[in-house]
Design goal:
With about 625 residues, the chain is of the alpha+beta class. It has 3 domains: about 240 residues, Immunoglobulin-like, CATH 2.60.40; about 140 residues, Neutral Protease Domain 2 (Neutral Protease, domain 2), CATH 1.10.390; about 140 residues, Peptidase M1, leukotriene A4 hydrolase/aminopeptidase C-terminal domain (Serine Threonine Protein Phosphatase 5, Tetratricopeptide repeat). Helices cover about 35% and strands about 20% of the residues. It contains 20 helices and 21 strands. The termini are far apart.
């Protein structure tokens, strides 16, 4: 600043300048135009998990210009947000958590403006409050992430399949996008985005957007997402990646040592896409690719549009676990296309998706196969309701009340399986033809929009029930959605394939050696049902008999191994402990980790073993997983 010019200020002006400098930078105020009619304000459901006020100012487009620094474990650069100021507001409020904000500018002229970070709130982070003018349409935030940003997992080469190069991936759901991008981090806010990302020259970057298929020499990649998406679907992965096409609209990315195995496993993706479109209308995202991430990825899959993130634990070698891909593909309609407005409405994403997944698997593999999946889901639901009801019965409702809580706490089997059973019950009551027509219309009507539970119920009553009081009473909608537990019209599911399993189980319990059981042709679902129906208490001899006959401790099928290890812990079958330790230290999928550590923690001996294993494994887990396990073992 020019010193001579500074001394020409009056004392009053100097005082004003000092106030302005107490912020980071300043902007010239603009006179407001005449106020607009409040009837034109965008109506967005109030979200308890965001500091933003999108009903006043909403982000419509995001431009990212980022550098990925593996040495610093940091992403830095700028985020330019195109905004729509509906109410002549003087401030834009964004969500941040553990971000360092360097400066903020307005418009293409990059005029500096004042901003402040509010107080820290547990799991929500800090609001970034930016001063804007009534005619501001563009805001640019210069920032960098923390090395411990919860959405980012930085992997050393030793933690990857290839062991040669580092790897980075993000996980933004539910409210972790704010840890790597300043944004309105609510599922009720949708935006298009463009990104320019600089990475080390020997690595490939991919996002939930248009993607390259090979490394370029500059290490600079550009991405476009022309369809508006919520922030939790922002995704980035950087690593030593190869690509294999699977069809005209699909392909798979993975590390070079894994990619061919992944391509074999997911060979039927195009068939899945065709089955899904035949059910509920055209696929609206141009491409559907899958990236198989390193084992520390905390979920089975994440439905990032155009690029599903998937765990390697689904690579069973026999395509027996690909229902997970059907699930993530189904999210292209239920979730990505029509999105829960808040995390209280999470079931609208996952319950619909579980139902849709089951229909895709029925179309591909037949009714008997789909019924096995459905019966297992119902069994898991009943177990989950029983477990949750002891302390938090309110969490067995479909519509949740998560204000003041981390929305991650609401992501239980209730949303998935109770939602699935609710929709299946409606189908059984009104008939499949009528129900499918309703769903096709629902997805078409609300494409690229957010949906609340209340609005869905209103739409259901107006377009399906249509004043039929007898049907209304039969469906018991309010009991399913707003009351805890399971209503008495829970669908009755009988998978005839499981009758074969019951016969063999009865023979074994009667004394027949396991090696003589007739298990030829059993699928993963047959085995999961078999293991679920074993007696709670078994002798070491019984456990050893099963293990010797079927190689359960050595199986490469993660679902079967998990179910077996749960039995091994409960029955103190020490012969399986080496497999247990290897499983806990070689993958980070929370679905497996949480129950296993919980079961271990039930005894003093088990908890000691759990803590020993966890001390070694924790550095390899994503924060989504280790924060859960921390609570179990504290």
């Amino acid at each position: 600043m020019n010193r001579k010019w500074f001394h020409q200020f009056s004392a009053t002006a100097l005082a004003l300048l000092i106030v302005a400098l107490s912020f980071t930078s300043y902007a010239t105020p603009q006179p407001p135009p005449p106020s607009r009619s409040s009837s034109k304000v965008m109506q967005i459901e109030k979200d308890p998990h965001t500091f933003a006020s999108p009903a006043e100012v909403v982000v419509k487009h995001l431009d990212l210009d980022l550098n990925v620094d593996f040495k610093k474990k940091q992403i830095g650069g700028k985020a330019t947000l195109q905004i729509d100021n509906k109410t002549n507001a003087k401030q834009l409020r964004l969500d941040t958590r553990d971000l360092t904000i360097e400066k903020v500018t307005l418009g293409k002229s990059a005029t500096p403006t004042t901003f402040r970070l509010g107080d820290e709130v547990k799991f929500l982070g800090r609001p970034l409050v930016i001063d804007i003018a009534y005619d501001t349409r563009e805001v640019t935030v210069y920032y960098h992430t923390s090395p411990t940003a919860a959405a980012l997992q930085w992997l050393e080469p030793s933690q990857t399949a290839g062991k040669k190069r580092p790897f980075l991936f993000t996980q933004s759901e539910a409210i972790l996008a704010r840890t790597w991008v300043p944004c309105q981090d609510s599922p009720g806010v949708r935006m298009t985005y463009h990104a320019r990302v600089q990475v080390p020259k020997d690595l490939l970057a991919v996002m939930s957007a248009t993607n390259p298929t090979r490394v370029n020499r500059r290490g600079v990649y550009e991405f476009d997402m022309p369809q508006a998406v919520p922030s939790y679907l922002l995704a980035l992965a950087v690593g030593d990646l190869a690509f294999r096409p699977l069809g005209k609209r699909s392909g798979v990315y993975a590390e070079p040592t894994v990619v061919d195995k992944a391509a074999y496993e997911f060979a039927d993706i195009e068939k899945m896409m065709a089955a899904a479109e035949a059910l509920y209308g055209p696929y609206r995202w141009q491409r559907y690719d899958v990236i198989v991430l390193p084992p520390s990825f905390p979920f089975g899959g994440m439905e990032n549009p155009r690029l599903t993130f998937a765990t390697p634990t689904v690579l069973a070698g026999d395509r027996s676990l690909v229902s997970l891909v059907a699930h993530e593909l189904a999210h292209s309609w239920s979730g990505n296309l029509v999105t829960n407005a808040t995390w209280n409405d999470f079931w609208l994403n996952e319950g619909f998706t579980n139902y849709f997944e089951n229909r895709i698997m029925e179309a591909l593999n037949g009714k008997n196969y789909a019924e096995m999946l459905a019966q297992l889901a119902q069994q898991e639901l009943q177990d989950e309701v029983k477990a949750i009801s002891t302390e938090h019965p309110e969490d067995t409702r479909l519509h949740l009340e998560l204000a003041g809580r981390d929305p991650d706490e609401g992501m239980t089997d209730i949303a998935y399986d109770k939602g699935f059973m609710f929709l299946r019950m409606i189908e059984a009551t009104v008939g499949r033809e009528k129900w499918d027509a309703f769903l096709r219309k629902y997805f078409a009507t609300f494409a690229f929009q957010s949906m609340t539970t209340a609005h869905f119920v209103e739409y259901l009553r107006a377009n399906l029930i249509k004043g039929d009081q007898a049907l209304e009473e039969q469906l018991k909608i309010d009991q399913w959605i707003y009351q805890p537990g399971l209503p008495d019209n829970l669908p009755k599911i009988h998978a005839v394939e499981f009758d074969k399993v019951k016969a063999q189980l009865q023979a074994w319990q009667a004394g027949k050696p396991a090696k003589e059981l007739q298990t030829q042709g059993w699928t993963t679902q047959h085995w999961l049902y078999f293991l679920s129906q074993l007696p709670a208490s078994m002798s070491k001899a019984q456990m050893a008999d099963l293990d010797a006959a079927f190689g359960l401790s050595k199986t490469g099928n993660s679902e079967i191994l998990f179910a077996w290890l749960m039995r091994a812990i409960a029955n103190k079958y020490e012969a399986a402990y080496p497999a247990l330790e290897h499983f806990l230290t070689s993958q980070g999928r929370r679905k497996f980790l949480k129950p296993l550590y919980t079961e271990l923690a039930k005894t003093a001996e088990g908890k000691a073993m759990a803590k020993r294993i966890y001390q070694k494994a924790r550095p390899t887990y994503h924060s989504v997983s280790y924060l859960t396990i921390d609570e179990i073992l504290k």
